[in-house]
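Appendix B, record 7
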Amino acid sequence: MMRWEIHTCFVSLGENYPNPFNPATIIRLTLPEATNVSLTVYDAVGREARKLADRVFSEGLHEITFDASSLPSGLYFYTIRAGGYTKTRSMMLAK
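Structure tokens (predicted):
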């Protein structure tokens, strides 16, 4: 049996899948070490729509499901803050 291990030296925030989505999507992030992660979704005008994470994550690949069933259709942005790294990506909710 083969076991795959992910080793990385930097934080990585992947594209959400699927995109566009309705009503849920998965956001992937990879961490080189255990660190505090903040993952927040904002609407098109910059208002916080949902806080998906604000806790310590272990090293490796993580998948976070964003359920937007209570939000209106439109463009949203998700931002990760982890160990001095900040990255923002966009996603489209199409109901």
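Remarks on this record: The radius of gyration is 14 Å. The chain has one domain: 12-93.
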